[in-house]
Design a protein that fits this description.
mainly alpha, 0% strand, Lipoprotein, signal
Length: 160
């Protein structure tokens, strides 16, 4: 008897909650769900990108003359950063509201990619000051474009 009354109470609670949600119009649309999923992906991805960027730049040390200290740690951190960049470049599930912002992200990731390419060249020839300056420029550009992406995502979230 006790089990039956608990089931009846649970059923009543579920029906009441469903009716309240339906009446309040809280059934999320497919678009809202896609946007929420994208926002969650952005948060996770930005955390991962930031960590990989910091790990790489911590190893990207100059001797003050435009010559980097090429070592295994920098090589490993550069490869890890490149993997995270590629993950962002291949991500395809972007809701319509975020298309423009996602293009900003991809542009920033391409700048990071150019910087990484030059860091990889520097690992082979660490005394190339022009490569060092160019790599630094591309990494800074990627950082600025990624920051613009984050700002755009914030604006979109506030407007909805």
């Amino acid at each position: 008897m006790k089990k039956q009354s608990q089931l009846l109470l649970l059923f009543t609670l579920i029906v009441t909650l469903l009716a309240a949600c339906q009446q309040a119009g809280q059934s999320p649309s497919k678009q809202d769900t896609k946007e929420a999923e994208y926002e969650q992906w952005v948060q996770r991805y930005m955390d991962e990108l930031n960590e990989a960027y910091e790990n790489m730049t911590d190893q990207f040390i100059s001797d003050g003359q435009g010559k980097i200290q090429a070592n295994k740690k920098l090589q490993k951190a550069t490869k890890a950063f490149d993997r995270v960049i590629q993950k962002g470049l291949t991500h395809q599930e972007v809701p319509a509201a975020y298309q423009k912002a996602d293009k900003q992200l991809k542009t920033g990731l391409h700048s990071f990619e150019k910087g990484i390419s030059q860091v990889e060249q520097l690992l082979k020839r660490p005394d190339q000051e022009k490569l060092f300056i160019s790599a630094t420029h591309h990494l800074q550009d990627g950082l600025q474009r990624t920051a613009a992406f984050i700002e755009e995502v914030g604006r979109i979230q506030q407007s909805t």
